[in-house]
Structures are given as structure tokens and as C-alpha cells.
Amino acid sequence: MKHDVAGSLPLQHEPPMRDEGKTKERLVHEIRELRTRLGELEISRRELRNALDALQQCYEELERRVDGRTSELLGLNDELQREIRERMVAEKELIDSRRRLADIINFLPDATLVINQEGRVIAWNQAMEEMTGIRAAEMLGKGDYEYARPFYGEKRPILIDLVLQPNKKEETVYYLFERDNDTITAEVFILTFKGGTHLRAKARPLYDAHGNVVGAIESIRDITTRKEAEARARKLAAELEERVRERTAQLETANRELEAFAYSVSHDLRAPLRAMSGFSHLLLEYYREKLDDQGRHYLQRMDQVSQRMGKLIDDLLSLSRLTRVEMRRERVDLSVMARGIAAELEEREPGRDVEFVISERLIARGDTQLLRVVLENLLGNAWKFTAKHPQAQIEFGRLNQKGKPVYFVRDDGVGFDMTYVEKIFKAFQRLYPSNEFEGSGIGLATVERIITRHGGEVWAEGEVGKGATFYFTLA
Question: Going by DSSP bridges, is the β-strand pair 354-358/392-401 parallel, antiparallel, or unpaired?
Fold first, then answer.
């Protein structure tokens, strides 16, 4: 199509102009659509950019989470490895502990078995092997009371089963049965085991860390030798008791006969002694002028000897009574008793210059009358053997030896030679002649017998010319 120079109207061909208008409209339309599409593309591009940004953020977040989870997993892996190592160590220690426990059980001196909660043997030590003749390899893992067969010849419950069945009544075969909390101790005689054997057994349950019963342990000891020894001891004790009764009856009879004899002898001896003393007095009274000095001296000696003999008889009777008199133990103030005896001695011989040193509050337990005899003899001896000293001292006191009170009477008299100390407490054993120091030789023997009856001891120390000390204890 052609246009004129002005371009206002076409020169020819009118229809092509209509086609050109349509084309322009179409172009405008397409341009609009294109613009719309471009706008949509721009929106899509922005959305895509936003999506890419969001995706980048998600990726970064995912990386952070993966890194965190990886670190967490690595930490868990380290912890798991540590736990595995610890468990392996613990399992090794458990194995070692079980081995040590097995060794301990195996070398226990008593025959020992252990069963689990199902009643199966899990330990059978060497002592049990020796007692029963059954090897551990033959018994481990067995249940159903198989462990009773070596003892009873049959399968049956034994003491260890009563531990796992606390409500089960104890068997009457046990002649001793004791429960102490969850531990049972019993003794039994089994005729079928080694021809008759006494066994002492102790059983108790085994617990896990939570206090649940997981098994039981029993130790068994052969006490046949001990029981036989006890039976022999009981037999001997019965025989000894019978002998003691017989001996006691014989001694009582002998004591009664001795007492009767002593009184008889005393009576029979006193009569001639009284006669000797009486006739000697009559002779001295009525025939003094007809006797010379030597005759009078002989009569006086006869009188003195008869009096000494009478005193000796009295002392012998007193000594014999000491073994028969009944003791009455009570609280005794020895200080007061000693002061009273000292006063009697001073009253008897007021011209003597003797200082008594008596400790205060010497309290003992014993028979008052017998202890008085002890002090009378000891203080009387001290008084007698200081008679040749113009000034003398007698001391009564107490000292401690190994925590026990020891009483003593000390004097500064003539003393004695320690060579003869063994004779000093024997009857009629005199260290000095009677014409030098009077006495019957019975006093210290009496002291020794009384102290022995009190369960104590008596001994003496001395030195010639330097005095003597007599010690005694009371049980």
C-alpha cells in the first residue's frame, strides 16, 4: 500500500488499509500481552529470588542442624564408646570377682555348696568333694535335690532348701535347729553317711543388689569327733561326779569319825593332864618343905608341861574345826578389828613399848570370826617376836599387786632365815625353841588354812634380826 506525501490518505487500494489496522491492533494486543507476560515474569523472577533466598536459608539451617546433630552424634558415639569400655572393664572385674569368689569358696575349710534360685548347684567346693567323694564337675548344674543324695542316699530337701522356703517347717531329723534372722544353724546325725556321722550346717540366702533372693549357700562341718569327745567327757563327768559323791560321803564319815576321835582323845588326854597338874599343885602346897629346890623345880616343870599340853590340845581341836565350820562372807573392817586386837595385846602386857601403825579403812569381804583368828595369830606373832626389843613397831596395811589388794603385817622383831620359809606354815614346825619363844607351832598353819578357805594366798618374807612381813590375799 502506498501513501501520499502528507501521509493522510492512501492513494489507492482501500482494502489493504483495513488489514493494516487489524495488524496494528493485533500488535498492540500482543504488546500488551507481552507486557503482561513480562510483568508476570518479573513477579515470578522476584518469587523465584525469594524462593531461592528461602531455600538458601533452609539449606544453611539444615547445615547448622546437620552440624549440630553430627556433633551430638559424635558426642553420643564417644559416650557410647566410653560406656562400652566401662562395661567391658566392669564385665572383666565381674569375671575376676566371680573367679575370686569361686576360689574363696573352693578353699573354705568347711564343705560348701551354693545353689541358684532354681535350686541348681553353682558351686561345690574342694572340701565338699573330699567329704562326699563327688567331684564338682559331676554336681554343677544339677538340681531337683540331687545334692542331698551323697548324704542321705536319696533326693530330698536339706537345710539349704529351708532357706529358700522360709515357710517350710524344719525337719525333725535335726536335733539342734536355730534361726537367726535369715540364717539357719542345725545339727543332725545321718546314719547312712559314712556309717553314722554328726554334721553341723549353716545356711543363708544370697541377695542381688536390689535385695532380691537369687540363691542360697550352705556350709557343712563334720563334728563327729567333737560329739564323741563330748560323749566321753559327759561319761567321765558322770563317773567323776559319782566318785566325788562317794569320796564326799567317805570324807564326811571320816570327818565325823575324826571329830569324835578328837573329842575322845581330848577328853582322855585332859583327865591325866588335870591329874598331873592337880597333884603337882598339891605336892607343892602340902609337901613344899619336904622337897628340895630341885624337886620343887621338877614339879613346876610338870605343871608347865601339862598346861602346854592342854594348850596344844585346844589348838589342835581349833585347827580341825576350821575345815568344818561354815563360812559366812560379809563386809569386814579389818582396821577396826586390828585396833581391837592391838588393844588387847597392850592390856595383857602394859609395860611393853610397841607402836602399832594400822592403816585406815582396810575393808574386805570374808568370814568375820575366821579373819579375826588370822589377825590374832599374825599380830600375836609380831607381838611375841618383838618382845626382846625395848622399842618395837608393828604395822598392818595394804598394797596393790596387779590390781588386787594384798594385806600385810610387818614387824621389826627377830625375823627368820628365808631358807626355812617353806616350813613356816606347817603345823608343829617351829623356827625357834619353845623356851625362847612360847607357842604350839599351830598358829601359822591355822592362818594358812583360813586364807585358803577364802580362796586367797599367804606368804612371808623375813631376815634374821631385821623383822618379818606376812602377806595375804582374799578372793
Answer: parallel
